[in-house]
Predict the 3D structure of the following.
Amino acid sequence: DAKTTQPPSMDCAEGRAANLPCNHSTISGNEYVYWYRQIHSQGPQYIIHGLKNNETNEMASLIITEDRKSSTLILPHATLRDTAVYYCIVRANAGGTSYGKLTFGQGTILTVHP
Amino acid sequence: DVKVTQSSRYLVKRTGEKVFLECVQDMDHENMFWYRQDPGLGLRLIYFSYDVKMKEKGDIPEGYSVSREKKERFSLILESASTNQTSMYLCASSLQGNYGYTFGSGTRLTVV
């Protein structure tokens, strides 16, 4: 699976959008981009994933560049409860009966300030 | 609400003991995973299973074994616990295919 690079930490004001970048310049055509977060002392939580199109769900939006070498996770209106470690993970296609393991890096520590 | 439940939140065991960590999911997921998480090392995959009685080694299987006799339950076994197995253990499950994982809350194991 391709390696990802994320900033070690970021700050965001409550109520503002949090934009978390991720570089994955060696991503291959069949690899998906996944985002998870981990709030202190809890298990990681799945947020969103995508292949090449932008994706949105109730938690966040995922913007993937056209060349797929980078992506941005957007939390549109950050709250204090969004303070967490955010992991960007690239994973090979796990379609059909195959499986795709996740390899976690160090992630970005997002701190949301009042 | 769908859940992955780990049997214990905190566990203290003695060196040399056989330790069982249990994980149960109620989502009819095919895949189940065991990770450990340590400061500075992040989450590392120990074992995973893609079907009943099937298992695959992850990145750090040494000192561990697993059992999956029923689809909903995946057990991690430390045959002879050692102090370097003191860690946070996280279980996860997923459907087969390109889906996200659902994680449990974790078991913090201390081996003394």
